[in-house]
C-alpha cells in the first residue's frame, strides 16, 4: 500500500509571508503476513509561492484580509483547492505572533487551510520546524554529529540543536533584521523594536524615529546583537546582554557543537556577504548578516550551508510537522479531524501499573479538570509487548484514574508511545461497555503543555497523521 497526501505550509512572519505545498508519500513496509507498519517514505516540495512582505495595518495589527487574499491567490496558482489538503500547518512566527490580532488572522484562514491544518506558533516549535526545514536535523543524523541551526528572521532568532537527528535543545532571542525599519531611501527610521531601544540605550547610542540611521551606528548595533548570539552558543561568557535578548529559556550548553547552519531571511547575507546598498531592504538585515559572518560563530564553529535558508520555516511547516501514528490503532467512531487537544501526560514507569490510576487522578486534580470542559487526551508510555493481564490492568487503571471526569469528555483519547494502541483501545471500549467512544493511537511521544491534532485516517484507515504543538501562541 502506497498513498500520497497533500500538505500545505503557510508561514506568516515578522518580515515575510509565504506558502508551500508538499507531497508526502506513506507506505506499508510490512509483508502481507505481518502487522501493517506505515512509514513516511518521501517528503517533496511541489510548489513554492513568491515571498511577500507581511501586510500590516499598523505596527501592532496584521492585515488579515490581505493575508487571506495572498493565500487564496497562491492556492489558485498552485492548482489546489482546500478540500485536497490533508495536513500541514499555518504558523504565525517571530514578532508577528505577538501582534494584537494574530488569533483573528488564523481564524480568517481556517476555511482556506484544508481539512486538517493546524495553527501554531511559539519559539520552541518554530525553532524545531525551521531546523527540520533547513535540513539540519537530517544532516546531524547522516553525519552522526551535533549541529545547531540559527533561524534568523525579521524579528527573532530561533535556535535548535540536533544531535544524531534528535532535538536536544532550543532557545529564542529577540534578534532579527527588521527590528529597525527604515523609510524608503533611509529618509528616516520608521520603527524601533522596544528591546532594540533598550539595547541602544545600554550602549549609549542615540537613535530615534524620524531620524536617519547611519551605517556606522547600525554596524555597532548589529555587532552587539551578534555578541548575544556568541554568548548563547557558549563562545563568550554569558552576560546581562544575553539575559536581555532571550525571549524565554536559555540553551543548556552542556554539549559540544560540531556544526552551525543558518536559515531565515538574514542567512543569505551570512553565506554571501555583500558591500552593496546595505539598506536596500529598508532594514538592518544585511548588516546583521555581515556581522555574523565576521564573528566567532563562523570562525570557531564549522559552518555548513544546507538546502533551505529563507524558506526553511515554511518548508518545515509543510513537510515536517506531520508524524504518522503506529499501525495498530483503535477508533470506535470516525470523529476526525480532532484539533487542539491538550495533553495530560502521566509520568509513570511502564511496569508500574499499580500507581497508574493514582497518578492519573493526581494530574487531573493538578490541572483542576474535575469540572470538565475541553476535550483532553491522556498520554502514557505503555508497556512493550504486554501480557494480556498487563493490558487489562492498564485499561482498568485508566478507567479508575479518570473516574467521573470521563463523563465530561466526548471521547476517551489515549496516546501511547509503545505499540499497544489497538489492543488497549479495544480493551478500554469493552470495559466501558461500548458506551464511550475511544480513540487510541501509538508511536507518538508528547508531554504536558503539548497539544495535538489528529487527522483523517490514512492507509486504508490503519494510521492517522498527528501534529504535535508545543505552544499555540507566543504572546
From TrEMBL:
Signal peptide: none annotated. GO terms for molecular function: lyase activity. It comes from the Bacteria. The keyword DNA-binding does not apply. Keywords: Lyase. This is Reactivating factor of Adenosylcobalamin-dependent ethanolamine ammonia lyase. It comes from Lutispora thermophila DSM 19022.
Amino acid at each position: 500500500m502506497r498513498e500520497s497526501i497533500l500538505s500545505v505550509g503557510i508561514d506568516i512572519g515578522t518580515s515575510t509571508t509565504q506558502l508551500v505545498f508538499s507531497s508526502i508519500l506513506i507506505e506499508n513496509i510490512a509483508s502481507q503476513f505481518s502487522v501493517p507498519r506505515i512509514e513516511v517514505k518521501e517528503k517533496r516540495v511541489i510548489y513554492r509561492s513568491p515571498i511577500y512582505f507581511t501586510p500590516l495595518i499598523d505596527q501592532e495589527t496584521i492585515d488579515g484580509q490581505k493575508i487571506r487574499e495572498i493565500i487564496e491567490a497562491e492556492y489558485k496558482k498552485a492548482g489546489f483547492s482546500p478540500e485536497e489538503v490533508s495536513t500541514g500547518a499555518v504558523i504565525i512566527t517571530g514578532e508577528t505572533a505577538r501582534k494584537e490580532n494574530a488569533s483573528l488572522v488564523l481564524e480568517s484562514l481556517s476555511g482556506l487551510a484544508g481539512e486538517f491544518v493546524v495553527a501554531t506558533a511559539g519559539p520552541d516549535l518554530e525553532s524545531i520546524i525551521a531546523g527540520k526545514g533547513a535540513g539540519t536535523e537530517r544532516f546531524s543524523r547522516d553525519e552522526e554529529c551535533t549541529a545547531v541551526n540559527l533561524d534568523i528572521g525579521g524579528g527573532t532568532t530561533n535556535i535548535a540543536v540536533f544531535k544524531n537527528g534528535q532535538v536536544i535543545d532550543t532557545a529564542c532571542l529577540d534578534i532579527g533584521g527588521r527590528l529597525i525599519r527604515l523609510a524608503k531611501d533611509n529618509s528616516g527610521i520608521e520603527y524601533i523594536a522596544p528591546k532594540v531601544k533598550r539595547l541602544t540605550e545600554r550602549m549609549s547610542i542615540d537613535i530615534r524615529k524620524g531620524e536617519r540611521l547611519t551605517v556606522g551606528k547600525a554596524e555597532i548595533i548589529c555587532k552587539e546583537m551578534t555578541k548575544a548570539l556568541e554568548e548563547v552558543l557558549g563562545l563568550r561568557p554569558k552576560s546581562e546582554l544575553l539575559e536581555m535578548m532571550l525571549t524565554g529559556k536559555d540553551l543548556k550548553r552542556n554539549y559540544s557543537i560540531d556544526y552551525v547552519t543558518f536559515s531565515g531571511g538574514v542567512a543569505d547575507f551570512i553565506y554571501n556577504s555583500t558591500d552593496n546598498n546595505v539598506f536596500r531592504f529598508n532594514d538592518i538585515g544585511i548588516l546583521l548578516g555581515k556581522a555574523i559572518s565576521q564573528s566567532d560563530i563562523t570562525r570557531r564553529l564549522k559552518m555548513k550551508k544546507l538546502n533551505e535558508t529563507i524558506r526553511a520555516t515554511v518548508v518545515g511547516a509543510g513537510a515536517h510537522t506531520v508524524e504518522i501514528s503506529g499501525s495498530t490503532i483503535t477508533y470506535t467512531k470516525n470523529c476526525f479531524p480532532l484539533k487542539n487537544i491538550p495533553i495530560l501526560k502521566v509520568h509513570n514507569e511502564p511496569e508500574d501499573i499499580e500507581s497508574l490510576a493514582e497518578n492519573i487522578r493526581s494530574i487531573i486534580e493538578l490541572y483542576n479538570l474535575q469540572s470538565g470542559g475541553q476535550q483532553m487526551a491522556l498520554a502514557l508510555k505503555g508497556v512493550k509487548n504486554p501480557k494480556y493481564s498487563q493490558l487489562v490492568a492498564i485499561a482498568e487503571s485508566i478507567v479508575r484514574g479518570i473516574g467521573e471526569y470521563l463523563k465530561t469528555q466526548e471521547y476517551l483519547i489515549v496516546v501511547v508511545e509503545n505499540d499497544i494502541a489497538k489492543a488497549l483501545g479495544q480493551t478500554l471500549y469493552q470495559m466501558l461497555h461500548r458506551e464511550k467512544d475511544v480513540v487510541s493511537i501509538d508511536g507518538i511521544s508528547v508531554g504536558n503543555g503539548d497539544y495535538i491534532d489528529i487527522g483523517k485516517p490514512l492507509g486504508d484507515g490503519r494510521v492517522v497523521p498527528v501534529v504535535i504543538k508545543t505552544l499555540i501562541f507566543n504572546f
